[in-house]
Amino acid sequence: MPAVLPILQSAELPSDAVEVGRIGEAWGVKGWFKIVPYSNEPEVLYKADKWFLLPSEKGAKSFFTGTVLLNVKQARDHSGSVVATALEVLDRDGAEAMRGARVFVSRTHFPKAAEDEYYWVDLIGLNVVNREGVNLGVVRELLPAGPQTTLVLAFEVDGKEQERMIPFVSAFVDKVDLAGRQISVDWQPDY
User: Fold this and answer.
1) Predicted confidence (pLDDT) per residue in 115-166, tens digit
2) pLDDT tens digits, residue range 18-71?
3) What is the distance of C-alpha 12 from the center of its chain?
4) How far is 99 from 25, CA to CA, in rounded Å?
5) Residue 108 in 3-state DSSP?
């Protein structure tokens, strides 16, 4: 019996889309599939009924190109992992065909962050300055480091890209201004 590939509708990636995971292996025979979430708290996957897929970045062959829409029927926790099913996925072969696809969700489905809490995606690209107004760099990524998160900044010295790390804790972070795209810190360039 030939594989039945999902018929996925081309879509435009929303301007507020955030990559939240990737599709893993098929789960069962009725079109369910596992999701590998990028967060330990994947509530947004349970709430959003429209996911936007892009082919895997790893160069693996995909049966679709560009952005496609996946209409999620159900997503839920199963033994510590996330499993889902969608209208377009009819069987195990269809689920397996999507393996590796990157999953994006519109930011409108994210829960509102509490005061003094931030989504990592909002911090990436922010300029970091210290109390003296010295520019320390731009947030390139964040690293989970045990009980705290660490900001990884990129900056240049004599035309060469450098890296600086600052713990993202209240002892060093004075203010996060998302609207102004800046983080103020108690940190010196030579630390």
Assistant:
1) 888 988 899 999 999 999 999 999 999 998 778 899 999 999 999 999 999 9
2) 999 999 999 999 999 999 998 878 899 999 999 999 998 765 567 888 899 999
3) 18
4) 6
5) helix
Rounded distance between C-alpha atoms, residue 135 and residue 133, angstroms:
6
Query: Please, what's the largest Cα pairwise distance for the chain?
Result: 69
The DSSP element (H or E) to which 47 belongs, if any, is helix 43-47
Q: Which helix (H) or strand (E) holds 105?
A: strand 102-106
Report the C-alpha gap between 191 and 180 in whole angstroms: 25
Residue with tokens 């004075």: 174
Does residue 32 contact residue 119 with C-beta atoms inside 8 Å? no
For residues 143 and 149, the answer to whether their CB atoms sit within 8 Å is yes
In contact, 46 and 138? CB cutoff 8 Å: no
Instruction: Identify which of 116, 112, 32, 38 has the alpha carbon closest to the alpha carbon of residue 75.
Output: 32
Q: Around Cβ 140, how many Cβ atoms within 10 Å?
A: 15
Model confidence, pTM: 0.74
Q: In terms of DSSP bridges, do strands 33-37 and 81-86 run parallel, antiparallel, or are they unpaired?
A: antiparallel
Cβ-Cβ contacts under 8 Å for 46 (sequence gap 6 or more) = 75, 76, 77, 82
DSSP code of residue 162: E
Q: Tell me: pLDDT of 1 over 70.
A: no
Please enumerate in sequence order all residues whose Cβ is within 8 A of that of 168, keeping only pairs 6 or more positions apart, or say none. Answer: 123, 142, 148, 149, 150, 151
